[in-house]
């Protein structure tokens, strides 16, 4: 199978139909995030990062026949701090840092925005507020400065904003097939 087919299977699999405390399934949520990035005119790597940002929540499906997240933790447990790291590590076999770093950092970007941007916390879903505590809460000033210095910090913040907006049960996003060519073109050769 090609990388795009493997990722497509995850989007089609049972893990993508979990809700993880939000009003849309994780699959719909990721497709909405990708569509929002695309509509904003983001470059392909950033569209891919938005589309794939929560892949760490999805089980590997056929690979081990279990319902465990990519990092081996339960989907629920991986909904707190590790799913960004797990997803980025899994994606790094095919994609470069322009895709994997915003995925890895999207949880940190939430902690960053909670500290750096007045009003951001009020935009979070109830589930995002709940997991914020598990993820370490808003960043301290020193952490904010360290985050801002990371090469992909701005991209991670962009992904985070699409992430927050991609929880609308009234929106039907394009299917995974819409994004497959974009992903295929990004796979490292
Ligand atoms: Fe998300």
Question: Could you describe the 3D structure shown?
Answer:
There is one protein chain. By secondary structure, the protein is mostly helical. The protein has one domain: Orthogonal Bundle (Hypothetical protein af1432), CATH 1.10.3210. Helices cover 54% and strands 0% of the residues. Helix 1 packs antiparallel against helix 9 (176-186) and helix 5 (97-116) packs across helix 8. The protein starts with a helix and ends with a helix. Fe (iii) ion (FE) binds next to loops.
Task: List the main descriptive attributes of the protein structure presented here.
189 residues, Hypothetical protein af1432, binds fe (iii) ion, globular, mainly alpha, 54% helix
Write the layout of secondary structure elements.
Elements: H1 3-12, H2 26-39, H3 44-52, H4 83-91, H5 97-116, H6 126-134, H7 141-148, H8 153-165, H9 176-186
Helix pairs in contact: 1-9, 2-3, 2-8, 3-5, 3-8, 3-9, 4-5, 5-7, 5-8
Fe (iii) ion binds at residues 29, 53-54, 163.
Q: Name the shape in a single word.
A: globular
Average pLDDT works out at 91
What is the fold named in CATH at topology level?
Hypothetical protein af1432
Name of the CATH superfamily: Hypothetical protein af1432
Instruction: Give the class-level CATH name.
Output: Mainly Alpha
Order of helices and strands: HHHHHHHHH
Proportion of strand residues: under 5%
Please, how many helices? 9
Give the low-confidence spans.
61-67
The helix/strand class is mainly alpha
Largest sheet, described in full? none
Bound molecules: fe (iii) ion
Number of domains: 1
Q: Calculate Rg over CA atoms.
A: 15 Å
- The tally of strands reads 0
The separation of the N and C termini measures 15 Å
Tell me what the CATH architecture is.
Answer: Orthogonal Bundle
Helix content, binned percent:
40-55%
């Amino acid at each position: 199978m090609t990388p795009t087919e493997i990722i497509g299977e995850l989007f089609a699999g049972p893990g993508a139909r979990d809700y993880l405390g939000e009003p849309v399934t994780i699959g719909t949520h990721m497709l909405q995030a990708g569509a929002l990035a695309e509509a904003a005119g983001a470059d392909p790597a950033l569209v891919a990062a938005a589309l794939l940002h929560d892949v760490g929540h999805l089980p590997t499906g056929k690979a081990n026949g279990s319902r465990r997240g990519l990092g081996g933790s339960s989907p629920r447990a991986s909904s707190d701090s590790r799913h960004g790291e797990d997803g980025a590590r899994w994606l790094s076999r095919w994609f470069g840092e322009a895709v994997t770093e915003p995925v890895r950092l999207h949880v940190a970007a939430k902690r960053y925005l909670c500290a750096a941007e007045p009003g951001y916390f009020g935009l979070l879903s109830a589930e995002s507020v709940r997991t914020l505590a598990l993820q370490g809460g808003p960043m301290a000033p020193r952490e904010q400065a360290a985050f801002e210095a990371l090469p992909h910090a701005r991209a991670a913040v962009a992904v985070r904003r699409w992430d927050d907006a991609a929880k609308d049960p009234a929106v039907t996003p394009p299917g995974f097939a819409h994004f497959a060519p974009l992903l295929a073109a990004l796979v490292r050769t």
